[in-house]
Amino acid sequence: MENKLTVHVRHIERTLRVSAIALFFALSVWLLRDILLLLFSAVVIACVLRGASDAVRRVTRLGPYTALISVILVTGLALGALLWWRGSAIFNQADEISRQLRTQLSRIWDELQNSSWGSILAQQLQIAGKSLRTGLTGYVTGVVGSVLGIGGTLVVTAATAVFLAASPQLYLEGSLRLLPMAWRPRGRHVAGELGATLRLWFLGQLVDMLIVGVLLGLGLLLIGSPLPLSLALLAALLNFVPYIGALAGAVPAILVALAQSELLPV
């Protein structure tokens, strides 16, 4: 009887210990979610840069650092050339999209308030909007008043990604030291598989974004919708966000297209 009681006590102790560790881990992830998201973004970018630099090395026989620098320079020059070529047009069309979206949303809101059931829904939306604005006031103030801000976060993410891409083995071996000795070979294998999977996932997302942008742009051109380039670019960028990105990217195109039709009053 005493041995059974001892076994039960050990089981209870082990269960409590595992539960406490799991709770501590979940709480830590929740409290550090912003930092972990930034770190995950840096790791994804680093995997992409490292994969591209390895491909350049296989073709050109350049050194690892030279190949990485060439990839970063070519990417920066490509983005700079795009902004120089169509930057002003894209920004002007973005302002026009914003204006048309505000106009269309205002018309939809007026139509909603003029109907019997729509007025009730409008009142509920107004109450929810006031609560949301009240809750976001402190958050937005904290973000705007922070030392880093959005620009600083982008700089930190980019710098972290470059350092990770330049010396991935150094940071990997340092991270593996957190594991027991017996787990380190398995951890090294899993890390390699994760890096390859992240590179392929990012490549698949880029192909998906390209297909969505091209097809939407062609469709908008065929129906004679205004601002096809900016709407296609916006939909392609939003398509990077899983699940809701595709729907969010379609809304501006639909509203702008409706402005040219007779479905909504002018």
Task: Please provide a brief summary of the model.
This protein is mostly helical.
The secondary structure category is: mainly alpha
Main β sheet profile = none
> What oligomeric arrangement do these chains adopt?
single chain
N-C termini distance: 85 Å
Mean pLDDT: 77
Helix content: over 70%
> Would you report the number of β strands?
0
Order of helices and strands: HHHHHHHHH
Low-pLDDT runs of 5+ residues are 135-148
How many DSSP helices? 9
Shape: flat
Estimated radius of gyration? 26 Å
Can you tell me about this structure?
Helix content is 87%, strand content 0%. By secondary structure, it is an all-alpha fold. The longest helix is centred in the middle third of the chain and has 51 residues, at 64-114. The radius of gyration is 26 Å and the shape is flat.
Give descriptors for this structure.
single chain, 266 residues, 9 helices
Task: Note the topology.
Layout: H1 2-31, H2 33-60, H3 64-114, H4 116-145, H5 149-166, H6 168-176, H7 184-222, H8 228-238, H9 244-259
